[in-house]
Amino acid sequence: MKITGLEIIPASKYLFIKITTDEGIHGTGEAGAWGFLDGVEGVLRRFTDYLIGQDPFRIEHHWNYLYRSMYFRGSVIMSALSAIDIALWDIKGKALGVPVYELLGGKCRDKVRSYEAVFCYTAEEMADFCVSLKEKGYDAARLMITGDISKSTADRSCSIYNHKVETYARKVKACREAVGDDFDLILECHRSMDPCEAVAFAKSVEVYRPLFLEDPIPPDSPEAMADVAARTNIPVATGERFINIQEFETILQKHAAKYLRPDVCALGGLTPSKKVAAMAEANYAKIVPHNPLGPVSTAACLQLDAAIPNFGIQEFPSFYHQGNEAEMTTEPFREDGGYILIPDAPGIGIELVDNITEKFPPRQRSISAQTAYDGSVYDV
């Protein structure tokens, strides 16, 4: 079998690819650098010259060739490599007639625990949304512990240390009281605090036993993240921005997190994500894949989740339901309350619908930062 082509497929705010072969088998992938998809397209075109004529089964070899051939590396390049890697695993699974999880060691579970994000910004709204999720069968929710990110300028109160910490803590308290004890709260801080704020906030909500504290500070410094992790009993989660396995190893060595967040569409695909899972297992850490993207990303995550023993919980984008994105695939994901059933079809288990670009016109996400009350740039 030989690779014969690579088709770039933009749809909605996502970028998919289809790799074709001379035996009529194709594989589908998705890129993760959502703010720079035009840049990813350029990298994919550059990579296509190498891929044409290659044996699609040599996934590890192609991954290393493309990774090591680049003098400069970064999120755009790794997102392109991610899409290719996922598509090649899809091809190999289809060619052998098995789901990808069979190629990764076999299935450890039949369904995957999941959660949705609570995109509300007052304590009352967040509590109500958590209750609605619980009524739908979910037993976990991701709370956006930030200011109102829909605004371009932060309120003056966001500059007041006590107000910020107290407001964030009140949100967690309201949600815990609304859903009771049999429900996990994930605190997505979205890099919105500095280390002092993060520690004060974490200490004030430890009593509510959150599942984990996600990116309490910007994840640029492993040392700073380790310092925050050492000062709270809440496990820290990070890794969604990482683009190589060495970043995860550093986080583990410094005891900076107990939940790792690899993004299969940003890290380089399923190939490095499986390696991160093994590293985490050796360090008693769990994998909670980052997944803010389209159905190909979700499908790839499910294959990883199925094949690893140290899976924790899966992010399921709320816009899958709210944006009719089940219609992007020929068959929707099968759900069971707050769980997603592992697809058993060969490859990654899904197919994109025909004419997806026409049905979901491209609209690349914008890049933006929030401005603080005094005019400076503010982390949210």
* Average pLDDT figure: 95
How does the overall form come out from the CA principal axes? globular
- Beta strands, count: 15
Structural class: alpha/beta
Helicity, as a percent range: 25-40%
Text of the CATH class of the largest domain: Alpha Beta
Pfam families: MR_MLE_C, MR_MLE_N
Organism: Enterocloster lavalensis
Keywords: Lyase, Metal-binding
Protein name: Galactonate dehydratase
Characterization of the model:
Residues 123-235 form the Mandelate racemase/muconate lactonizing enzyme C-terminal domain. This is Galactonate dehydratase. GO terms for molecular function: lyase activity; metal ion binding. It comes from Enterocloster lavalensis. Keywords: Lyase, Metal-binding. The chain has helices at 37-51, 59-68, 75-96, 100-103, 123-135, 161-179, 195-205, 222-230, 245-253, 270-282, 295-307, 319-322, 356-359, and strands at residues 3-11, 14-21, 26-30, 111-118, 140-144, 184-188, 212-214, 236-238, 259-260, 286-287, 314-315, 335-336, 339-341, 370-371, 377-378. By secondary structure, the chain is an alpha/beta fold. It has two domains: 3-98, Enolase-like, N-terminal domain (Enolase-like, domain 1); 102-347, Enolase-like C-terminal domain (TIM Barrel), CATH 3.20.20.120. Strands 4, 5, 6, 7, 8, 9, 10, 11, 12 and 13 form a ten-stranded mixed sheet that branches. Strands 1-2-3 form a three-stranded antiparallel sheet. A two-stranded antiparallel ribbon has the order 14-15. Strand 12 and strand 13 form a beta hairpin. The mean pLDDT is 95.
